[in-house]
Amino acid sequence: MEGLTSFERDCVERAAAADMLRQVENWAEVNSGSGNLDGLAILASRLAGAFADLPGEIRLADAVPVDAVDASGQRYEVPHGRNLHLTVRPDAPIQLLFTGHMDTVFGADHPFQAMRWLEPGVLNGPGVADMKGGIAVMLAALQAVEDAGETRVGYEVIINSDEEVGSLGSAALIAASAKGKRAALTYEPSALPDGTLAGERPGSGNFSFTVRGKSAHAGRNPEDGRNALIAAADLALRLQKGVGPRLSVNPARIDGGGPNNVVPDLAVLRVNLRPATLEDQTRAQSLIEASVAMVAAGHEVVIDTHGHFARPPKPMTPELEALFGVVQRAGADLGQSIGWKSTGGVCDGNNIAACGVPVIDTMGVRGGSIHSNEEYLIVDSLAERAALSALTILRLAGEVA
């Protein structure tokens, strides 16, 4: 750490020394699957207690209403947990945003519920890497910066409850908090176990197409029917033809159909589309609209489209490259080699970038096998990443003349 001032050294050592493992174990023992509202409420309370050690105003914000489409084509409301929101020194000259998520992909009835040691220093457990470890890193870095007396930085923290299901209930809160920020750090686990960060990300949109046709007897008068299942399949194929190097299309499911002797009058097609750039997103939207119109006319059916591109593409911009430079230099001064690569996944970093704020969204722990029963956390990375975040914050604060 020869490149650090004594002030920086004291701060990063304090961050690295925080008892983060204890916090991770405390938080990971609570099942916080995106749909487990009781578990999310318990975890939100624990997180609020931990983040209350920071100055500022803390609250648990309700999610905005979110709806979805069921297998019968009816819309219904999807309940979401509350989101932790902390605001510190909103009038400071440098304003930053820190985000994480408390939810996991493991529901209350999922068999993966317990932690265990795979080997010394490697902890297996639901959410230990994605991203309860990252939340602990964030908190340790912010607490160290506060203890150091650095007041040139103000910030907002959002720990949302629905990132794993698209952040539909928290996107508005994230957008409002991103406004006017110099930069943002999000604490998803590193893109690779060696600590590589994620750079560019594609966008993502989930769509449900409800196709309503007309039933008829399959033997007596099939010509009077309008087969919704065939129309849905035709729509899936037309959308699939839009696949290219900069746009992936995944028709994932068709709900519908019935007895063999009845022309089906209802089908619901589920599709995920991932455009590489905003231009590709525009092309994807045009593809959807044109395909729906052609199928509706060709099959004489009515199609209702539900969904949108909730995760816009995150491009590599000059501002983001500059922020990566700050983090990379901080890593070098700490003896950490920091690189980055494009990735196919999406996260809240996409939403933040869409607000015009440069964001590095893999500042969390090193680990791997996320979203599986083999998910693991490399415990040494807690101290590494807390030190990296603390020094990055101090370097951004140093931009104030």
Can you give a write-up of this model?
The chain is 35% helix and 23% strand. The chain has 10 helices and 18 strands. It has helices spanning 6-16, 20-28, 37-51, 128-147, 171-178, 228-240, 278-299, 318-333, 348-354, 380-397, and strands at residues 57-61, 67-69, 75-77, 83-88, 94-101, 116-119, 122-124, 153-160, 183-186, 197-198, 204-212, 247-256, 266-275, 302-311, 340-341, 359-360, 367-368, 376-378. It has a 6-stranded mixed sheet, sandwiched between helices. Helix 1 (6-16) crosses helix 4, helix 2 (20-28) crosses helix 4 (128-147) and helix 8 packs across helix 10. The mean pLDDT is 97.
Question: How many strands appear in the DSSP assignment?
Answer: 18
The secondary-structure element order is HHHEEEEEEEHEHEEEHEEHEHEHEEEH
The pLDDT mean sits at 97
The tally of helices reads: 10
Given helix and strand content, the structural type is: alpha+beta
Helix content: 25-40%
- What name is given to the CATH topology of the largest domain? Aminopeptidase
Distance between the termini: 24 Å
Determine the strand fraction and express it as a percent band. Answer: 15-25%
Count up the domains.
Answer: 2
Across the major sheet, the strand order is 1-4-8-5-9-16
**What kind of sheet is the major sheet?**
6 strands, mixed
Low-pLDDT parts are none
Please tell me the CATH architecture of the largest domain by its name. Answer: 3-Layer(aba) Sandwich
- Please write the CATH class name of the largest domain: Alpha Beta
